[in-house]
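Problem: given the chain below (100 residues), write out its structure.
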Amino acid sequence: VNGSHCDYMDVASSHSFYVDTCSRLCGKAFSEERMRLVERYTAAWFNYYLKADTEGYDHIFGSGLDDDVQAERIVADIATAPGGLKVEVNRSQVQLTWSV
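Solution.
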C-alpha cells in the first residue's frame, strides 16, 4: 500500500543520499517496513517456486498474506495458486512445470 520502486532498494535508511534521492524522484518517502515486506514476499515467492520450499506458501497465499491484508500493509489480488510444482534439471537447463 502506497509503495514505490524505492521499496526494492536494499539499503539502510542511514544511507541518506540514496534514500533521499529515490524518495524525491518517485515522490514517496522511503519506508523500512515496506522494504521488509518486499524482502519477505520476494524471498517467499522465490523459495516456494524455485526451491520447492513449501514454508513460503503461508506468506504468499495463506494466513501470512491474510494478516498483512487485514492490517492494510498490502493489497492482494490473486488469480491463481499454482500447485504441483515440478523442477527438472537437464545439464544446464531447468524446466519448471505446475498446474493451476
